[in-house]
Design a protein that fits this description.
Oligomer: single chain
Order of helices and strands: EEHHHHEE
Structural class: alpha+beta
Distance between the termini: 7 Å
Strand order of the largest sheet: 1-2
Largest sheet: 2 strands, antiparallel
Strand content: 15-25%
């Protein structure tokens, strides 16, 4: 039930009442959405009926997994080339089109570079996975949030009766 009191210029008091429908609140819904997203990324978003977020989740995590695999592959290639050079007594195979022109120091730098990128990609992907869980949890909380006109903040323009200028302000209305 909502009640609104307003006073007009002629000191008349109006009382308006209206019925409001209160929905059921499920306190376990956010935990369930987070659990579903932890089991399978995007499942919590489906539980919350936010289907448009599922491709975003899989795109973000998929990009992270791609960079992990790519950096790991290149790291292993540089590591294998370094091992091959150590087995040959430090000799460089100049006939190799990929690594033939690189010095041993460059091969070591390339190996460290791709190892650092792989590790950073693992951290970022883990962060995106956790963000997926947090998003499902927060979204489930906000689905239960009461959003109606009973609580509103509206700009208010009013003419000052003494100076006849416009006064600007905000009106906070809470109806219960």
């Amino acid at each position: 039930m909502s009640t609104q009191f307003s006073v007009a210029q002629n000191k008349e008091l109006k009382i308006e009442t209206k019925q409001t429908v209160k929905g059921d609140i499920n306190p376990l819904s956010p935990a369930k959405a987070a659990f579903y997203s932890a089991i399978l990324p995007g499942l919590g978003q489906a539980y919350n009926k936010r289907y448009w977020k599922i491709p975003v989740v899989y795109g973000a995590i998929g990009a992270g997994v791609y960079f992990i695999i790519d950096s790991n592959k290149k790291h292993n290639q540089y590591r294998d080339e370094y091992k091959k050079r150590l087995a040959n007594g430090g000799r460089i195979d100049t006939s190799d089109p990929t690594y033939g022109k690189l010095s041993t120091e460059s091969v070591i730098r390339g190996q460290k570079f791709y190892q650092k990128n792989r590790d950073l990609s693992v951290l970022i992907t883990a962060g995106l996975y956790i963000l997926n869980i947090i998003d499902a949890n927060v979204d489930a909380h906000l689905l239960q949030f009461n959003v109606n006109d009973d609580l509103s903040l509206k700009p208010n323009l009013q003419t000052n009766p003494y100076t006849f200028k416009q006064d600007v302000g905000f009106t906070l209305t809470y109806q219960f």
